[in-house]
User: Fold these one by one.
Assistant:
Number 1:
Amino acid sequence: MDYFITGSRAYGPYGKDSDLDLVMSIKDSDEFRKKVKGADVEFHYLKKPVPYADKVWYFEIFGILINVISVKSQVDFECWKETTRRLVLIDDIVDKEDRVQMFKSIFCDVHSGYPTSIGRNVSYEYHR
């Protein structure tokens, strides 16, 4: 199972009430869900779309909200990973909305560098 942490727990700032965001393929997401199902937790699907994600579901365990961000393609998985890596290097973006906008901008930049792109519209600019 291949996954990584993204969001505020990866590139901050986060607090005691911050959720934990995991990115994985749809296949790994389904496998992970089967494993967690035995922990007697209630699963929910996010109805609001998340940019560059194919499916998002979440559950709470030990007082922590876990979001599982599922992507269909390896290209999208690698773009999420590289975008997260780049955001970790930026320590001056404290405002959550600024972080979201910066994520979109970096993701578009990273995604445009993949010739095997699945053809999503990822044109987005960030202006701070």
Note: The mean pLDDT is 84.
Number 2:
Amino acid sequence: MFGPLVLAISLVLIALAPALLLAAAVTDLVLSRRRWQTTRVVAFAEAYLCVEVAGLLALFGLWIASGFGATIRSERMQRAHYGLLRRLLAATNGAVRRLFRMKIWIEDRPERRPGPILVFSRHAGPGNSLMLVGTLMIGYRRSPRIVMLAKLQWEPLFDTMLNRLPNRFIQHDPRNRQRYVDMIGELASGLGDDDAFVLFPEGHDFTYVKRLRAIAHLRKRGYHDAALKAERMERVLPPKHGGVMAAITAAPGGPPRTRGVDRVAVRMVAANRRLDRRAPHRAAAVTGYGGGSGPVISGVSHSSPVGAWSVESAIPSS
């Protein structure tokens, strides 16, 4: 709906890039002692607008190539869309690395091997989520199947691209909870050897108000032990297990074993204090490989130098 409008606005802002960058540079010379924060932010915004325009035009071209949408769900067109998404993420990651000197470390880096994987990640904002998906697609050549909030569809590029691929947009609606849980299980059930299922068990970006509400909800439902654990999580929301269990149960091969045990630990790492601006922000992977034909489980954590907590969910033995 908003695609043509966003495209037009993006083109105007790209045309104004020289004037905007000059104004940002002057601002930095006067106010930021030549640290160039404003200039780098404006430069990244312009780079992202270029990615937006290129992506929307490429999606239009793929729609024409698919017979005006007739074969948009075919395997060939799905591969083409994943290839486009991979290139767009690579361009975005490249801009971030150059402008903000961002680096990504993967702790206990798992080997590449065939077989579906389930990824349960800390919910730390859209930028962090893009880094995670980019790592899966570029570093591990995986085709992600992502569960996201429906509100993300306001962004035309995400809306068009991700609705053409096997992903699911859900809402926080208690009346339709089982429907969304079933959708998550359905999405996980069709995983192939090169696919990665991605879910954010927290369900929200962290705020103190949401944390208090979640703890109160646990107590109201009688989950007093879980509420006590949640109170020790100062920067993380307690994870929701319904979607996690649906994905694990529905994944090809049935409920997996991780490192020979019948429990899957979803490890999340939270900051107990503010990060120093010079401290690295790490994305670490904790991976267990199950026996038999079950999927690999990856608990992906986004860590600061301090603080950690883990939640374990019982999984029936396969």
Note: The longest strand covers residues 296-303.
